[in-house]
Acyltransferase (Paucilactobacillus oligofermentans DSM 15707 = LMG 22743), 68 residues
Amino acid sequence: MAVLERHLPAKYKFITIADWGKIAAQHPEVFKGIDGVHFGGIRAGDILYAKVINQALQVAKHSPVKED
């Protein structure tokens, strides 16, 4: 994820980041035996990705919404 994108939540309280790149780097096992970028067919990768998205949604649920 780009540096700019990682700083957006500090500037805009209505933005929540699901930082898959950060979490994926901590779990190289989900990329074992493949191209190192995609985890297709590796159940642990599917589960981890879903957890990252779900955690971000839980944070977003308690964050302010964008005003018009």
Observations:
- Helices lie at 3-11, 20-25, 43-61.
- The CA atoms of residues 30 and 50 lie 13 Å apart.
- The chain has one domain: 3-61.
